[in-house]
Design brief:
Layout lengths: L2 H10 L2 H21 L5 H37 L1
Helix pairs in contact: 1-2
């Protein structure tokens, strides 16, 4: 039986077909997750540290830019 015919048959079953589709989805997800190459703990910690540093640096830059522009607008409006 072709995959299309099997899918049509499962949809015709109603809730039973939905459970079958859900189970098949979870099996497929598990198979795909087994193929993933997960990073080592050290690499994850290092990457997280770099990201946090860049977020703080960006926040400081945007805060300083906002402060400067707001001071300029106040000065121009006086």
């Amino acid at each position: 039986m072709s995959t299309k015919a099997k899918d049509d048959e499962e949809q015709a079953e109603g809730a039973g077909g939905l459970l079958t589709q859900g189970r098949r989805f979870l099996v497929d997800v598990r198979q795909e997750l087994n193929k993933v190459t997960w990073p080592e703990r050290k690499e994850t910690v290092t990457s997280t540290g770099v990201i946090l540093f860049l977020v703080v640096l960006t926040a400081i830059y945007l805060g300083a830019l906002d402060w400067g522009v707001s001071r300029l607008v106040r000065w121009l409006l006086q």
